[in-house]
Specification:
This protein is an alpha/beta fold. It has nine helices and 19 strands. It has three domains: 5-157, GTP1/OBG domain (Spo0b-associated Gtp-binding Protein, Chain: A, Distorted Sandwich); 162-333, P-loop containing nucleotide triphosphate hydrolases (Rossmann fold, 3-Layer(aba) Sandwich), CATH 3.40.50; 349-415, GMP Synthetase, Chain A, domain 3 (2-Layer Sandwich). The protein binds guanosine-5'-triphosphate and magnesium ion. Magnesium ion is lined by residues 172-173, 184, 192-193, 216.
């Protein structure tokens, strides 16, 4: 069970920043007032947030794309565009985030841990920001930055919330196959299950979805704690489960009464690890369709039938309640700090193509040339100054650029001129 890995690929796209506005004040007696174009709003970022009520990555299998909203454009009278909200995507505790090259980017171990999956684009500055002593009427503004887009890979090592415990052949595998998408082998003989099966049980309601991982383990028999049967090696999985469901066969073929099954199971759990008796436990009789529904035969237990479905909603509800309250206690005990993972700050890098061509990479450099009108001489001058102060020219000469080589930054291409 410990190597049961849930995994998915997810595409995240931060929202684009809104464009800055080019606008001039209108006044009755002035033909062209000062620049008053407002800034664009920032695009929304996408965060992965570890959440203890999310138990699987199932959600992303069929819908792998997530996109945050874009910022609004700035407008005249220095009105700034509104920024888009960031988007929190809930992932289970224990989700590990990788890029497609296999590098681990984050390990969201505890409830509340956050990872910036895709940064939203910054809003562009309006022309009001480009006013200077020399430049009285800037006719350009910054365009919004595009949001970051990438594919990420998520992996989760599942740990069971609920373990199904019972004698062989009582219907554990049948139960998990009814309440989750797990497809274990089911047969009418003991020790059908040789390896634990995990299934995710989802409860969808209007407020919030609730998920829990259920483990169907091989049947336990008397003496399991000392190594009899198959149960022993799997008791350690029971050990990690938050809640135990003890399944008692109401129609046991060797006629062991449910009460005696319960007593024997408790004895095994205790012999293996006495603390297991403290674990929240739900006891339920299985195969209710095989007996008359009276106390003499159900022995006063809650009962289910995985064949007819009787009692399953009630059982699932009880399991969810028990799991939720254990998780709540854990969250209160949890003193771990919230880890915020930030992306590495991108610096400028130069890529050399053949035939005297160079590409400049880096967010700041791209931003310097992302202006609304690069045919405007003042805009071009502004861009060049910024590239210079970012050290782009130095970096180009270091990379071997010579007079006349072609340099590409974003949509802009120009001839390199040595100082
Ligand atoms: N009539 C009836 N039969 C059931 C029910 N649940 C399971 N069975 C049958 O009981 C037999 C054993 O079911 P399994 O689900 O394989 O039992 P298990 O507890 O997983 O058994 P092991 O893996 O050997 O421990 C199968 O023939 C099932 O069809 C039920 O609710 N009603
Ligand atoms: Mg089984």
């Amino acid at each position: 069970m410990s190597n049961f890995v849930d995994e998915c690929n997810i595409n995240v796209q931060g929202g684009n920043g809104g464009a800055g506005c080019v606008s001039f004040r209108r006044e009755a007696h002035v033909s062209k007032g000062g620049p008053d174009g407002g800034d664009g709003g920032a695009g929304g970022s996408i965060w992965f947030v570890a959440d203890h009520n999310t138990a699987s990555l199932l959600n992303f299998r069929d819908h792998p794309h997530r996109k945050a909203g874009s910022g609004k454009h700035g407008s005249s009278k220095k009105k700034h565009g509104t920024s888009a909200d960031s988007l929190d995507i809930k992932v289970p505790e224990g989700t590990v985030v990788y890029d497609f090259d296999g590098h681990e980017l984050a390990d969201l171990a505890n409830h509340g841990d956050r990872f910036l999956a895709a940064a939203g684009g910054e809003g562009g500055k309006g022309n009001a920001r480009f006013l200077s002593n020399k430049r009285r009427a800037p006719a350009f503004a910054e365009q919004g930055e595009e949001g970051q887009e990438r594919w990420l890979r998520l992996e989760l090592k599942l740990v069971a919330d609920v373990a199904l415990v019972g004698f062989p052949n009582v219907g554990k595998s049948t139960l998990i196959s009814r309440i989750s998408a797990a497809k274990p082998k089911i047969a009418n003989y003991p020790f059908t299950t040789l390896e634990p099966n995990l299934g995710v049980v989802r409860i969808e309601d209007d407020k919030d979805d609730f998920e829990m991982v259920v483990a169907d383990i091989p049947g336990l028999i008397e003496g399991a704690a000392e190594g009899k049967g198959l149960g022993h090696q799997f008791l350690r999985h029971v050990e990690r489960a938050r809640v135990l469901v003890m399944l008692l066969d109401l129609a046991s073929w060797d006629g062991v009464s449910p009460k005696d099954q319960e007593t024997a199971l408790l004895k095994e759990l205790e012999a293996y690890r006495p603390e297991l008796l403290e674990r929240p436990r739900i006891v339920v009789g299985s195969k209710a369709d095989m007996v008359f529904d009276d106390d003499a035969q159900t022995h006063g237990y809650d009962v289910i039938s995985s064949i007819t479905g009787d009692g399953l909603p009630k059982l699932i509800g009880k399991m969810a309640d028990a799991v939720a309250s254990v998780r709540k206690v854990e969250a209160e005990l949890d003193t771990s700090e919230i880890v915020i993972h930030r992306p590495v700050v991108e610096t400028i890098s130069i890529e050399r193509l053949d035939q005297g061509q160079f590409v400049v990479h880096g967010r700041q450099a791209l931003r310097a040339v992302r202006l609304s009108d690069l045919t405007d001489p003042a805009a071009l001058e502004h861009a060049q100054k910024r590239l210079d102060s970012l050290g782009v020219n130095k970096a180009l000469s270091k990379a071997g650029a010579r007079e006349g080589d072609i340099v590409h930054i974003g949509d802009l291409s120009f001839e390199y001129e040595a100082d």
